[in-house]
Amino acid sequence: MAAVRRGCRPWGSLLGLLGLVSAASAAWDLTSLRCNFGAFCECDFRPDFQGLECDLAQHLAGQHLARALVVKALKAFVQDPAPTKPLVLSLHGWTGTGKSYVTSLLAHYLFRGGLRSPHVHHFSPVIHFPHPGHLERYKKDLKSWVQGNLTACSRSLFLFDEMDKLAPGLIEVLRPFLGSSWVVYGTNYRKAIFIFISNTGGEQINQLVLEAWRSRREREEIRVQELEPVISQAVLDNPNHGFWRSGIMEEHLLDALVPFLPLQRHHVQHCVLNELAQLGLEPRDEVVQAVLDSTTFFPEDEQLFSSNGCKTVASRISFFL
Question: Which stretch is the leader sequence (predicted)?
């Protein structure tokens, strides 16, 4: 396992990190309002790109495309003193490939309170929009929530999980906030960040990576330009996706479609070693092998990709310690 790079901050277990999504907002500390690079911070916004890049390099297994895309887009956006529109990213890929993990890192390295910051807002269809019959009320509430929080702090992060389970039409109320107008409803929203997460496109990404492997192409040779069209088409063809027949797609308001590639055996091994390190345990070959042996891989013939990525690694380790 790679040594911890200088400047990286220690993390708890992956499950503990992701569990912060549902934690209550922590009190806002007003005593420190300056970013580590010297610029004035709005709200509790204090980006730490060095820490972010370090953590992504050390802990995000097998995602060279996602890592490069997210860091490049984020740096350009944050360093622009007067962006003309919010940063809008859509993350796509198979379960357990790191989408939620990346959003957790972004919250941690952008806001002092991380996912508990009062300026980081996480939405889940099951929790926040459970009843299809209440769509109109949800649309009104969502618009008011976004507008009100952007009025309070223009540097806000909005995370929308499981977009493939979100009622089509709901997310359309965000369209005025995602474009390049200067103000919407009297609210300055150009410094906000919107991130949408879904498994849609995962099968298409997996197929393209499988074909590359069968053609003996290196994984790192795969380019975003190959994946963007198939992801976009998968979204447009999915009537259960929140972007179904959406003006957000038609008007090209997404700044990037970020692909997460399926994880192979050595990537899962990397996750196991990382998790053991987070638990303060030395690497144990028998534990690593036991977790790998208990992991299901596909396709049936090649046994190449993990069915659950690294999603169940933390829970599986406890069985073999």
Answer: 1-26
